[in-house]
Amino acid sequence: MGRRGSRGRAWACEAAATAAVTDRLPGTVRAARPSSGRADEVGRDMDRPVLVGLALVVLVGLIAWGAYAYRRRLEQSLADWLAREPGLAPTVSPVGLTPAQFADGFQGCPRGHRRYGLRWGVEGPLDARIGGLTATLTCAAFEWWWEERRQQTDSKGNTTTSYVTRRVPVAAARLPAAVPDHVQIGPETVFGRLGMSRSDHQLESDAFNRRFRVLAQDRMLTVQLLDAGLQELLLARYTGRTIELLGDLLVVAGDPGRRDDALMGPLRRLPPAREDVRELLAGIPAQFWRAIGADREG
Amino acid sequence: MEPGLLVLVGILVAVPLWLVFSYNRFISQRASMDATWAGIDVELQRRHDLVPNLVRSVQGYATHERDLFAAVVEARNRAVAVASGSNGVGDLARAEDALTQRLTGLLVLAEDYPDLRADRVFLDLQRQLVETEDRIAASRRLYNLEVAAYERRRQAVPSNLVASGFGFGRRDLFEIVDPAATHAPHVAIERN
Q1: Which residues of B fall within a CB distance of 8 Å from A294?
Q2: pTM of the entire predicted model
């Protein structure tokens, strides 16, 4: 109590002294103050929003700086990758397609509910074994992103809408010949598991049928594509991913499950995605390439 | 209405509906198997038609291999006879396997004649043969998939009651040596 009283007296003396000095300064207009104690309170009330504002500015600045620094590091990582693999170059239209064309044509690149797009696109030559022989194809890798709507309703019935950004690494390659169908191999749905999807092509392996949904108009083509070897490969390495063949394009979307530790962030999943295209092409049986006339292409 | 009566009415409605559905599904499966088998038949016919031309193109280079040519033609004629007759799937499979074996001998023979390997007619016929055999292999797999699904339903309870009641009989798988795997040359692909 005594200490608080002496501190109060000290504040009062200081305020009085400040007022006296202010009175002596030329051109200073002295504001009418009810008393020295209340003036102190008003000063503190004025300082609080300023301090909060300053803290916010600092916080936003720090976040912006962090985001900028992270982006710079990602750009440097991308540059390292491009330097490492000759022929690889950044692209905004992988294999010649715009984001809208990817969203329209491929199940592995969903539109989402609001915005979508691709980033960190790179493209370059890829040596692959096709039908037993080596061929050089154009292969791109990028990160596909889209926004999904989330709606929550509270106990009062108020609905809140928010958007969640989803990302998936995608690899796309131009094939030596066009596939005369749209072949989609993706994760099996609940209806498919229950045997209620007639459009899902069934193959010899029950394990494959349980995990993958195969859609195409031409059943003969999917049988030629999905021989025992490719079914085994897909089961071992591509469960949960989407593989699509449309025209002369092969698009593989999904997490490759491996990371390139020399890179950072989302870029770490892109080189394995490109490598998987190579592995997948090697696993496609020669009869499929013959069926689509790939052996007759120049 | 009494709950027991409701259940009875439900059963009386559901059972005929299930019966119709199951019967129609068998009919659909049978039609699908027949269509796939027709696909195999067409491709086998195409293979049979290719054999004489292939033999003729090889004969021009390897004149002294008469026994082999005769064996190929005989195997081909036998396969044609079995395919056109009312033989079972097993007989046809054996005849086709014998033809595949003879054709393999013919194609291996071509390896010893560089001029033959450069002959465009022979190469074209060889390509057609391999493409036809690819389609036979795919059609065979499709047919066997259809048969497997049909047999599963035919033997499983309760659809086996419909199968036995309406005479949906057993279907055999078509098991042959994959000729395409034996005869396929490497596919030459170069693209930048």
Answers
A1: 187, 189
A2: 0.77
